[in-house]
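wait is this the right file?? whatever heres the structure
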């Protein structure tokens, strides 16, 4: 019986170098996360005859991976055929070592704009999340895509002090349990639990059965047994610091930031509580046959493992595609897909020192 073979297409500064790279390929690893700073391509290539040229820093690599032909027997229904475009990456680190001589190239997603990381000093007043994201996107010639439920949320005051736009948006995203990232020329600001691609389309659910994988790891932790999250805010009328709680106040985690309003504090408390609950259970699964079509935020269901695993709705937050002489595999890291966290004791306006 014929077996499908992995397929790769690689270009360097627009020149197709697939035929030169593949016979020498030792390993290829592509890591794709919700947060754009984690998107990285790592190539290890044999230079046994000394004929390889070292690519310059700043060179652009494009990558497509998948399978050479229509999947054959043993593949689940809906398995993708052909290669899938995985985007552009900029070379930022190169190693050459030996013997035997090998060239190692590290490249990061080309959407990481240099200007996006420049430090800025400014404040935002009486605005909304959507307007902030749109303003920053416009500064970099990007298109903003903000989830409607988050974009309309008010921001009374926020300081961007000696902080890049990238870091400021990540911090703002943490306050609202959202993903702030740049992909394909789009500045995304979407709920961390939302199964949606950069294009805005809903990501199709993936169902995994036991025979699909080479290995798995399920883990549960009590996360310090927190019962909720307490966030503080400044009450200008009484010149006091007060607090709100998402969840239950018993053993609530305390956030360090003091927010400008009760609303901002509540958003932050609820977002952190949701992150804690989402991280109580984690699941790792390595697919025996690589799936280049799987992206972060893909919803996943499982069958054929333990009841607790099968009964959980999962969400992919990191994907690692690996290709070597042993084959093409995809490793998934997943967390629980939580609905919006309860507001809990949001009305308990407690002094910070209690």
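ok assuming it is, sequence goes like this
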């Amino acid at each position: 019986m014929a077996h499908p073979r992995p397929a790769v297409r690689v270009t360097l500064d627009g020149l197709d170098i697939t035929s030169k790279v593949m016979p020498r390929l030792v390993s290829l690893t592509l890591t794709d996360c919700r947060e754009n700073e984690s998107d990285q391509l790592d190539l290890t290539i044999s230079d046994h005859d000394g004929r390889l040229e070292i690519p310059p820093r700043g060179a652009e690599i494009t990558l497509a991976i998948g399978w050479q032909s229509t999947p054959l027997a043993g593949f689940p229904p809906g398995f993708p055929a052909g290669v899938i475009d995985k985007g552009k990456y900029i070379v930022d680190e190169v190693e050459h070592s030996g013997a035997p001589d090998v060239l190692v190239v590290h490249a990061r997603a080309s959407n990481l704009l240099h200007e996006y990381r420049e430090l800025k000093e400014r404040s935002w007043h009486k605005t909304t999340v959507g307007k902030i994201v749109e303003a920053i996107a416009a500064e970099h010639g990007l298109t903003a895509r903000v989830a409607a439920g988050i974009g309309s949320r008010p921001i009374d005051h926020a300081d961007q002090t000696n902080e890049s736009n990238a870091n400021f948006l990540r911090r703002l995203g943490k306050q609202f349990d959202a993903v702030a990232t740049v992909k394909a020329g789009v500045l995304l600001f979407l709920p961390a639990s939302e199964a949606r691609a950069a294009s805005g389309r809903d990501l199709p659910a993936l169902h995994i059965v036991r025979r699909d994988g080479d290995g798995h790891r399920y883990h549960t932790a009590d996360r310090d047994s927190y019962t909720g999250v307490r966030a503080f805010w400044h009450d200008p009328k009484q010149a006091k610091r007060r607090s709100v709680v998402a969840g239950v106040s018993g053993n609530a985690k305390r956030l360090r930031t003091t927010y400008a309003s009760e609303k901002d504090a509540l958003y932050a408390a609820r977002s952190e509580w949701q992150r804690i609950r989402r991280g109580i259970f984690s699941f790792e699964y390595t697919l025996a046959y690589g799936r280049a079509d799987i992206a972060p935020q893909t919803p996943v269901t499982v069958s054929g493992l333990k009841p607790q695993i099968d009964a959980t709705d999962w969400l992919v937050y990191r994907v690692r595609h690996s290709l070597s002489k042993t084959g093409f595999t995809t490793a998934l890291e997943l967390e629980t897909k939580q609905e919006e966290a309860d507001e809990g004791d949001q009305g308990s306006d407690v002094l910070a020192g209690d």
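Residues 6-110 form a domain with the Elongation Factor Tu (Ef-tu); domain 3 fold (CATH 2.40.30). so i think its the right one actually
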